[in-house]
Design brief:
heterodimer; A: 10 helices; 0% strand; B: Rossmann fold; Alpha-Beta Plaits; 12 helices
């Protein structure tokens, strides 16, 4: 087994067995999707709330796996000198990062394998979805969110990082156009929300899956900008020890 | 052992190493080497520069000046290549608290890919019955033994162990010593940092003593002790030790109320006791022999001055 495969196997099995991570990456998105699809209280402006929610929740899933789960895990590994110890193995930093990316992708595959059938069961019927476009959005979004998560994880101490990641998750969830439409947010907040990667990803996913994007072209540009800027920031900010 | 033999007999070579943290000079012109098949103890009080030196050797830290070569490689630039042949025990941490012991052992065995079986590794360090425990549930000694096991998963040609026995109970220490000796006898160059003199005395072939960022002694234990034979004895608090010194032609120092020490081998015991008998002075607890490493250490680092006043 090569060092990369060994680490990938370790990352995937640890992440999928960690109950707090599963709560965040799988249970909360599924609960939000089911609850707000069945209980029509969100101002979604679509005939069926699931049509609005499903793409947004897929975006939320990406954010929870690539930013929060990766960021919290890596932050603790930094604090407990796990990253330092791995530095003195044949793995090397490049392959460690590759293994972490692989692990995020594995989690996302599990998330989609659960969330998409659940959405269908709730009556979601996307018309002529552009799945390829959606996959591209997920990849770009993953890069952007991983950059944000690792920027925080690479600088803040374990517990502070944990609080920051969870806090950011909640803020982006509420303000990010994932479960609440931009139009329902007060003007200034809506403007901020549209510039956030969460809002951009949700908008792009809505466009690719259901032609329901508010301003897909701009959202693509914003998402790509985050995918460039956030990893660049992480590279500068990250401290291995 | 590794396929590529080092061109050097010295597997670890440190020359004129300087490590600075801003204004602070933590390591100041340090040179020493550690050979394969030997346990080299880097010994010194806390803050003497041991960990900084070891971390440069492990590739974690760049030297501010000087040169370090490990297995013929430059650790700062070749840490990953070196990592394949190097066993490392950090001073603390290195494993996630929630990680299960058997999973971490499996992870490191797979990472190094040297055909070491995790179960066999855990048995070696006596953690078989803790295999399913989370790391945070382990005692301090068990954590150290796991950390040593992860270093062994590399089947290392060189091993850097930072305070491997700190917080370890007597049985654990014995086990760690046996394993470390076994590593050396398989040809590994073991470099072990410790502030515990007893430990260095029990385990090391070669001792490098650090104080205030400098090497104050470097050699085999025997060589460090040689030339420092002494005779210790108790007598009357009123003993005229200066006169005794003149008679013996040696300095006699008073190191306690009624305790004295003469820098001499056992051949002068007869002359010493003869002089005391002649002057009606009592003699008790007379001991002759090599200084313990502790005495060598205190003498070299000057930390024993207070006790000898």
């Amino acid at each position: 087994m090569t060092p990369l495969r060994a680490q990938l196997r370790h990352e995937v099995s640890t992440t999928l067995r960690n109950s707090e991570q599963l709560l965040l990456t799988l249970i909360i998105p599924v609960m939000l999707l089911v609850f707000f699809s069945l209980v029509d209280v969100l101002p979604t402006e679509t005939k069926d709330p699931v049509d609005f929610l499903a793409p947004g929740i897929l975006g939320l899933a990406v954010m929870s796996a690539a930013m929060v789960s990766l960021g919290i895990g890596t932050g603790f590994e930094r604090t407990y000198k796990v990253l330092k110890r791995l530095g003195a193995t044949p793995l090397g930093r490049g392959r460690l990062i590759a293994a972490k990316i692989g692990s995020v992708i594995a989690v996302e595959l599990v998330q989609f394998a659960v969330l998409i059938p659940v959405a269908y069961a709730l009556g979601w019927r996307p018309s002529a979805p552009d799945w390829l476009g959606a996959v591209a959005a997920v990849i770009v979004g993953t890069i952007a969110f991983a950059g944000i998560g690792l920027s925080l994880a690479g600088r803040l101490r374990g517990e502070i990082n944990l609080a920051a990641q969870n806090g950011l998750y909640l803020v982006l969830l509420l303000l990010g156009g994932m479960v609440i439409p931009f139009a329902k947010l007060p003007g200034p907040i809506s403007a901020v929300a549209k510039a956030l990667p969460s809002g951009a990803l949700a908008d792009v996913l809505r466009e690719t899956l259901a032609h329901g994007g508010v301003r897909p072209g701009t959202s693509w540009a914003i998402l790509i900008a985050w995918a460039v800027a956030a990893p660049a920031a992480a590279t500068r900010l990250f401290r291995w020890e | 052992m590794g396929a590529v033999p080092a061109t050097d007999a010295d597997f670890v070579r440190v020359e004129g190493l300087v490590v600075r943290y801003g204004e602070l000079v933590a390591v100041d012109d340090v040179s020493f080497s550690a050979a394969s098949g030997e346990v080299t103890a880097v010994l010194g009080p806390n803050g003497a520069g041991k960990t900084s030196t070891i971390e440069v050797c492990e590739g974690y830290r760049a030297a501010s000046a000087g040169r370090v070569s490990v297995l013929g490689m430059d650790p700062a630039h070749e840490q990953t290549a070196l990592g394949a042949r190097m066993g490392v025990m950090l001073q603390e941490g290195g494993v996630s608290p929630s990680a299960r012991v058997s999973d971490v052992a499996r992870q490191y065995c797979d990472l190094y890919g040297k055909g070491v079986e995790p179960a066999e590794l855990l048995e070696l360090v006596g953690l078989t019955d803790r295999a399913r425990s989370a790391y945070r549930r382990l005692s301090g000694g068990e954590k150290q033994r796991l950390s040593l096991a992860l270093a062994l998963a590399a089947r290392p040609d060189v091993a850097f162990l930072d305070e491997p026995t700190s917080g370890v109970d007597v049985t654990g220490r014995q086990m760690i010593r046996t394993i470390v000796r076994g590593l050396a006898s398989n040809g590994c160059a073991v470099v072990l940092a410790t502030h515990e003199l007893d430990e260095a005395e029990k385990i090391a072939d070669h001792v490098v003593i650090f104080d205030h960022g400098r090497v104050v002694a470097d050699g085999s234990l025997d060589a460090l002790r040689r030339g420092h034979d002494e005779i210790r004895f108790r007598s009357s608090p009123m003993l005229d030790h200066t006169a005794l010194g003149v008679a013996l032609g040696l300095e006699v120092r008073r190191i306690g109320d009624d305790e004295y020490v003469v820098a001499s081998d056992a051949s002068r015991v007869a002359a010493l006791t003869g002089w005391l008998a002649e002057h009606d002075e009592p003699v008790n607890d007379i001991r002759a022999g090599q200084q313990r490493l502790e005495d060598v250490f205190l003498r070299l680092t000057g930390n024993g001055q207070g006790a000898q006043a």
